[in-house]
Amino acid sequence: MSLRPPTTESPLVRNILIGLAIVVLSLFLLMPLAAVFSEALRRGWEVFLASLHEETALSAIKLTLLAAAISVPLNTLFGVSAAWLVTKFRFKGRAFLLSLIDLPFAVSPVIAGLVWVMIFGSKGWFPPAAMADFFAPLAGLTANIAEYRGFYWFFGPLSEWLANPKIVFAFPGIVIATVFVTFPFVARELIPLMESQGSDQEEAAVTLGARGWQIFFRVTLPNIKWGLFYGVLLCNARAMGEFGAVSVVSGHIRGQTNTLPLHIEVLYNEYQFSAAFACATLLAFLALVTLGMKSVVEHFSGHSASGHK
């Protein structure tokens, strides 16, 4: 028995729709991407490379990578824990917890940045002066450890920060803002996947005497590994490209608290177009790498075939 085709449009209509989609994608995605690389290389490779090796550019790149290196593992741990909780258990407040997970998607990143300034700013709920008094004993203890026990490379900076615990307009604020805006990516990727898989395999493992960690590492994790990897990819891409929340809490201190997106804005406002587009190519390259890895993940996990994001 021959199967009925899912659509009845003629080949002409189908080709017109495909062509229209290609034209729109070319105008709104490919052409801007090509313009970024073209403008970055307009004055030659020497200017391009010099823009990336400039001291403030290297500081922005280092700060961006460090913020992502801290925020992505934290959100991965949270995302797996939250997905496990809401898919394996039924409890009061579950719907409210799901709404909280989605909150960073609904709140503007600029508002999120203002919230952290209100909490940890000099006139906020936890101003640096109050936290310095609270952390004073701990600052003295870490200073003594650094002086008498070594490990100054770790306890030295920690003691200095505890003596002057600045969060907003400093690196901790950038990390907090990045963690907030990338909060839901891993959890929202895993929750639908784990709900579709159900709990049959975990229940079978329990009947065979497996313990909690054994069930997670030998049953749950292998089933969600591609979804987890995909969520981490999205989380990392957003962490490295975040602008709004980080812009509010960073203070725009050049060479100290400017991440790569903020550094690009500064260069563009100063009419250093070649340097701005040279730095922008790094973020564009990250986007292309993310798309390539996304395709690999979909190939191995069958996301496309299943219709899962």
UniProtKB/TrEMBL annotation:
Protein role: Part of the ABC transporter complex CysAWTP (TC 3.A.1.6.1) involved in sulfate/thiosulfate import. Probably responsible for the translocation of the substrate across the membrane.
Membrane topology note: Multi-pass membrane protein
Transmembrane segments: 12-37, 57-85, 97-119, 125-146, 167-187, 271-291
Domain ABC transmembrane type-1: 61-294
The protein's name: Sulfate ABC transporter permease subunit CysW
Complex and partners: The complex is composed of two ATP-binding proteins (CysA), two transmembrane proteins (CysT and CysW) and a solute-binding protein (CysP).
SUPFAM superfamilies given in the database record: MetI-like
GO MF term list: ABC-type sulfate transporter activity
Localization of this protein: Cell membrane
Keywords: Membrane, Sulfate transport, Transmembrane, Transmembrane helix, Transport
Organism, scientific name: Luteolibacter yonseiensis
Transmembrane helix among keywords: yes
